[in-house]
Amino acid sequence: MNIKRIIVLGIALVAASAAALMVRSLVGGGTPKSEARVAPPPIAMSQVLVANTNLQPGQPLTPEAVRWQKWPASSVDSGFITRVMAPNIEAAVKGTVVRTPLIAGQPITNTEIVHADAAGMMAAMLNPGMRAVSITISVDSGAGGFILPNDRIDLILAQKYGSNPPQVRSHTILNNVRVLAVDQVYKQEKDTKTVIAKSATLELTPAEAELVEKAQNQGTLSLSLRPLNDAEAAQVASASGLSRVPTPTASPMGDGMGGGDAVSIIRYGIIHNSQAKADQERVQ
User: Which of 107, 124, 141 is the last residue of a domain?
Assistant: First the structure.
């Protein structure tokens, strides 16, 4: 064979091989190099105390109302209650009350609950828009000591008038009022049946607080204990926006605070009863 022909064929073969490799690389052929995948580092987790259900201000915090929830450690706020800080969930919530509304799954912080011995305990027990007002009572005016915190009562005003002979007129000025505390007792202790007290703290609307303050200067206030099953009726009345103030009628004292069976209506702080409105203006 001619040596020149062999050389030409060799060069052609090398050129064809190079062209084939070039085309293969352009269309993405070939076996890619295998690279070992590196797993990302695990996220550090912590366990924080969260609400197990929606909680309202004043509601006692119980072990059933909370749970431990895994939470990224990098997102744990300094105010969160963690399992490292409080391993025992019962000890973590013992004697605490919800101070601000909490939704299910929300982390609980130290600023959203208050302990029983803290100064803000009474404020946490109040429902939104309500006020705590204390009145003086005695064994006789406090149902013999059988009225305890969270009971519901009617508030009765007794007034003396006339002198020969002296007479007394009494009438209910408020219905379905929640008792927040009796003296310094704000919760019923186990097996407690009576509390002989000198004062009672009531949960009232601002308008009712003014009415009670006026009544204290006009006569003697007494508490009339209501049955336990009246609590549902009280909740319905509160949700409807109706006042617990009976409609005043003329009294022998001429003060416009007589008794009656009808009810005034307070909507957004406005009393829609002409006589009651006049009384409120005189108080102001």
Answer: 124
Q: Is 280 exposed, middle or buried (CB count within 10 Å of its CB: 0-12, 13-18, 19+)?
A: buried
Q: What pTM value is reported for the model?
A: 0.52
Helix (H/G/I), strand (E/B), else coil: 80: strand
Residues 81, 164: one domain?
A: no
pLDDT, tens digit, 9 for 90 and up, residues 81-126 = 999 988 888 888 888 888 778 899 999 988 888 876 666 677 777 7
Name, in order, each residue with C-beta under 8 angstroms of 44's C-beta and a sequence gap of 6 or more: 72, 73, 74
b/e code 24-57 from CB counts within 10 Å (16+ = b): eeeeeeeeeeeeeeeeeeeeeebbbbbbbeebeb
Question: 55 is written with which tokens?
Answer: 């909680």
Q: Using an 8 Å Cβ cutoff, are 47 and 71 in contact?
A: yes
What confidence tens digit (pLDDT) does each residue in 205-217 have? Answer: 999 999 999 998 8
